[in-house]
Write a structure and sequence with these properties.
single chain; UDP-n-acetylglucosamine1-carboxyvinyl-transferase, Chain; four-stranded mixed beta sheet; 15 helices; 24% strand; binds uridine-diphosphate-2(N-acetylglucosaminyl) butyric acid
């Protein structure tokens, strides 16, 4: 019986991402080693949001004068975005207190080549700002990814609707012409697009007209970007709703801004607390950004308390986890970025659960690695069917992407014996000091540095 489950999942798609350039600079062969079975206890402070920081950094292309950003996480993706921006004339400097000062000092560059863009898909969000502020934006298409096909058609459709003349050549896309404004519909087959909405909103902020963005992404990271742009002088209304109205202005000025907390990091730690039946409080968060996750953890039997800026998992007497189905959806639905971690939770639940991926139907690479730790997971198209088990045992596993690596770390916390998670550079892209934070809570976890 068990063999059948295992062999079925090994047929999961084999697409892969290009190795990030910084992976070759060191840390590529590091592993995270976890010895499972420890109970956790205490508070864990959640860092600033990676996915809010990246578009805000791109937005600094639009701004005249220095921008001071607070609560910016120290992550590889943030470093890489700053490196790409530097090549485009945007300087950044990290102060001793962690604040990041950013300023566009040379506004002549408009092209981001493939060797830069391929290192981070999110850099495609610089296209709109380059075009709007510098008259031309030229970026390489980002290419494939471990989640399967990730097109940028909606980004380009939106930018075209507000005036972009689009030229496609040799794997590049060039935008030119005046930013006029217009009416844009951002919906696609999997809902709205987060970075596509960001691209259009940023370009529209410096347009000659009014832009109506219908079916805008509702993610808190988009709200944070819009509020940041407003602080710089942009005219945006309808923030937080499906319809954004942007009245173009001539220029934007630098400001100070505090990035929102990372709801995905918070959800990851909370899921880990539930899996280990531990008394853990995730702090410095915005609980209202994670109600879908709180709802599903509750359905899985967790006993959660919520304060103004924290959520606490109160251990239950039995520590039992119940099987509870989940479907990922655009915000305010359950985030695709916590699907892998939730799958690790369901792998130890009593009963069978169905996990349906409606944002990235191919995002199941982690399933095969969870199986190596004893999970029973069967893939059926955009669904994974998880038969919970109490027999989970440590092994050497490989992370395929950022959130996959988080799910493997969580599973390592409960599996018997030792789990070695390889390709740690994935986790360093999006989790600040993950092993230190878990160790401070009492986990037996360390980074093995090699090479
Ligand atoms: N899509 C299209 N056409 C487009 C753009 C997107 O069909 O032009 C589809 C995608 O293929 C996907 C869906 O729309 O099926 C949603 O993709 P979206 O564009 O919203 O994703 P994104 O903006 O590229 C951001 C996050 C991802 C997160 C997704 C969904 C950043 C830097 N990235 O990506 O975060 O999974 O939204 O919430 O904000 C992560 O942090 O691990 C991560 C992958």
């Amino acid at each position: 019986m068990r063999r059948a489950w295992v062999s079925a999942v090994l047929t999961v798609s084999g697409a892969s991402c290009v190795l990030p350039a910084y992976a070759t600079l060191g840390g590529v062969v590091d592993r995270i080693r976890i010895k499972g079975g420890r109970e956790l206890r205490g508070d864990v402070r959640i860092s600033g949001s990676k996915n809010a920081t990246l578009p805000i950094l791109a937005a600094t292309i639009l701004v005249d004068g220095p921008v001071l950003l607070r609560n910016v996480p120290q992550l590889k993706d943030v470093e890489q975005m700053c490196r790409i921006l530097k090549r485009l004339g945007v300087q950044s400097h990290r102060h001793d207190n962690g604040d990041l000062e950013v300023e566009a000092v040379d506004k002549t560059f408009y092209k981001a080549p493939y060797d830069l863009v391929r290192t981070m898909r999110a850099s495609f969000v610089m296209l709109g700002p380059l075009w709007a502020r510098r008259g031309i934006g030229e970026l390489s298409y980002p290419g494939g990814c471990v989640f399967g096909h990730r097109p940028v058609d909606l980004h380009l459709k939106g930018l075209e609707a507000i005036g972009a003349q689009i030229d496609r050549h040799d794997g590049y896309v060039t935008l030119s012409g005046p930013v006029r404004g217009g009416t844009v519909f951002m919906g696609g087959p999997f809902g709205s697009t987060v970075l596509g909405t960001a691209n259009v909103v940023m370009a529209a902020a410096l347009s000659n007209g009014i832009t109506y963005v219908e079916h805008a992404a509702l993610e808190p990271e988009i709200t944070d970007l819009c509020l940041f742009l407003k602080r710089c002088g942009a005219q945006i209304s309808g923030i937080g709703s499906h319809m954004l109205v942007i009245e173009g202005v001539e220029s934007l000025q630098g400001c100070e801004w505090t990035v929102i907390p990372d709801r995905i990091e918070a959800g990851t730690f909370l899921t880990g607390a539930v899996m280990t039946n531990s008394d853990v409080r995730v702090t410095d968060i915005e609980p209202h950004h994670m109600l879908a996750v709180i709802d599903r953890l509750g359905a899985a039997g967790a006993n959660l308390e919520m304060g103004d800026n924290w959520v606490r998992n109160v251990p239950t007497e039995t520590g039992r986890v119940l099987a509870a189905d989940v479907t990922t959806l655009p915000y305010p639905g359950f985030p695709t970025d916590i699907q892998a971690q939730y799958m690790a939770l369901m792998a130890m639940a009593d009963g069978v659960s169905v996990i349906t991926e409606k944002v990235y139907p191919e995002r199941f690479m982690h399933a095969a690695e969870l199986v190596r730790l004893g999970a029973h997971i069967r893939r059926e198209g955009p669904c994974a069917i998880v038969q919970g088990t109490s027999i989970l045992a440590g092994a050497a596993v490989m992370a395929s992407d950022l959130r996959a690596s988080a799910s493997l770390v969580l599973m390592g916390l409960v599996a018997d014996g030792q789990t070695d998670v390889g390709r740690v550079y994935h986790i360093d892209r999006g989790y600040e000091l993950i092993e230190k934070k878990f160790r401070a809570l009492g986990a037996d976890i360390e980074r093995i540095r090699e090479g």
